[in-house]
Amino acid sequence: MKHVLILLVISSLFVCATQTSVKAQKTNSQTFGIKGGVNFSNLYVKDGDENKMLTGFNLGFFAKLPVSKTFAIQPELYYTTKGAQTTYNSTFINGTVQYNFNYLEVPLLFVVNITDNFNIHAGPYVSYMLNGKVKNKSNVGSVDFDNKINTEDYNKVDAGIAAGAGVDLGAVSLGARYTYGLTKVGKERTFAGTTYTTPDATNGVMSLYVSFSLGQN
Which CATH number does the domain housing residue 113 bear? Predict the structure, then answer.
């Protein structure tokens, strides 16, 4: 269902963009600024149960490059947190494992201004894993740990699709965005002749953000 909703948003975006390009209007000024907000991240496993969300943040820069009055291209660069918390339960032990990943992310968004103050946006993103931690807490204290991850054990590059909507209030904008990863977080590993991927999941992040325009060209 989430894949369908994302595809519908993107399809609507490009239909609007095509109509806009035919009816080119007065171009607005280019703007740039800073943005940041709160993340609600998760790791999704195909045909599996969803994990519990983690709360994090994002912080970085953006530039808005209008093509026409109603259509613009918006590249961004920001630091963002991702991950999730999963639980396990067996006969002898139960607990939680928390994955915390930190990325440098670059989305390239296509923005359609539905009105003077409201826009929808979508486009691809690529991000690079900088570092992270894995925490385990269980009813058997001797197996608890809080370790920095070795990024060589994970796919450092995460790529996917971002889609959202925003409200422009002068130099300040408010918005919500969902980013869906299309690459696995974990790498394939082999142990005792068995090949597996840990974590065998993709990133998903819902973000609420505020941005501030610092200037125009």
Answer: 2.40.160.20
